[in-house]
Automatic annotation (TrEMBL):
This is SGNH/GDSL hydrolase family protein. It comes from the Bacteria. It comes from Thalassobaculum fulvum. One of its GO terms (molecular function) is hydrolase activity, acting on ester bonds. The lineage of its organism: Bacteria, Pseudomonadati, Pseudomonadota, Alphaproteobacteria, Rhodospirillales.
Length: 349
């Protein structure tokens, strides 16, 4: 009798809220970057990519995001990236353009400066390892004149993870001085049972239990402790350096000039003496050195950002960043630096 009553309430709750009857763990969805409202779709090689043909306003960003059929972010709504594109951009959140609309990402602004099509292959939450893997794929598909890989130092830290923000990812291990790819294909079923516990693993499939937890103010436990990370090694710096040599192979095999662009978190400008900022700045410099040694074009946006910070330190963060990521003005700085570097590389400046 009790079971029948609970099943009845489950059906009623789902019908009233329109959640459907497909099996899904509501707790796991909240604790996974891809399933929690970000426009992502599972990918067996990369973990996830932007959901193809997406057009919406993710609640986490509150800006319009449109994604074309090839999982590339559009540079304007309803204008999918042509194939081939003259320039392909790859990277994480700072390339995808979290928190700004399509036309304000740095790849979109670069397209305007160059008057040439630029493909935005950035993906929110990516590590530098995933960014390079995707860059390799896009370089083969587009055969661009230039391949631009952007990163912040947090992307290097993510190369040490097999699970980032509750989502499984591929990663590299260093074996005898060489990179060995692991965890391919990544599991789409994460977080893991050990992270959720038996109770939430089982009851998480009940929308009624989820409904009760939300209304009983029990979300601190029900959805706790937030996005999960699983670290597998501490060799992020070495992995990043070896990834630069993988990009050199892309340059040689496709003919595209490969450019590596260092971007920075707001803390790196506002509090450069903070231990995390010191690690960011030192580590980023080493990655750029590895890129230059590998024969790639290394672009550091730090001098341009520092000049703007010194011109207005009290307003800098509010003008050039939105929460944890750059604003349209911040991405403009990146686009201008990349455009200038491309002009120098191709003899135009």
């Amino acid at each position: 009798m009790l079971v029948a009553l609970l099943v009845g309430f489950e059906i009623i709750a789902r019908l009233l809220d329109g959640v459907g009857f497909m099996p899904r763990n509501f707790v796991a969805e909240k604790l996974s970057l891809v399933a929690s409202g970000y426009p992502g779709a599972y990918d067996p090689a990369l973990g996830y990519v932007p959901a193809p043909d997406y057009d919406g306003t993710p609640g986490s960003w509150n800006v319009r995001v449109t994604v074309g059929p090839r999982s590339l972010r559009d540079n304007a709504p309803g204008r999918p990236t042509p194939v081939p594109a003259a320039v392909v951009a790859a990277g994480g959140s700072y390339t995808f353009g979290d928190a700004v609309s399509d036309a304000h990402t740095w790849p979109a602004q670069l397209e305007g400066l160059l008057d040439q099509p630029v493909a935005n292959g950035g993906v929110f939450g990516y590590g530098l390892d995933q960014a390079v893997l995707r860059a390799e794929m896009l370089a083969v598909e587009h055969r661009p004149l230039a391949l631009v890989v952007g990163f912040v130092y947090d992307d290097v830290r993510r190369t040490q993870l097999v699970q980032n923000a509750g989502a499984e990812k591929p990663y590299f291990e260093v074996v005898d001085g060489r990179l060995e790819l692991r965890n391919v294909p990544p599991s789409p079923d994460r977080p893991r049972v050990g992270q959720l516990g038996v109770v939430r693993t089982l009851l998480g499939y009940s929308y009624l239990a989820d409904w009760i937890a939300r209304r009983a103010d029990a979300t601190g436990w029900w959805y706790g402790p937030g996005f999960a990370e699983v670290q597998v090694h501490t060799d992020g710096q070495e992995v990043a350096c070896l990834l630069m040599h993988r990009l050199r192979s892309v340059q040689e095999s496709t003919g595209a000039r490969v450019m590596v662009v260092a971007q920075y978190a707001a803390r790196d400008l506002a509090t450069p003496d903070d231990p995390r900022s010191v690690e960011d700045l030192t580590g980023t410099g080493r990655v750029l050195e590895c890129a230059a040694t590998a024969g790639l074009i290394a672009v550091d946006t730090l001098p341009a950002l520092r000049a703007r910070y010194r011109a207005g330190p009290t307003t800098f963060v509010g003008q050039y960043y939105v929460r944890a990521v750059p604003s349209a003005a911040g991405y403009r700085v990146v686009a201008e630096q990349v455009a200038d570097a491309l002009a120098r590389a191709y003899g135009g400046g």
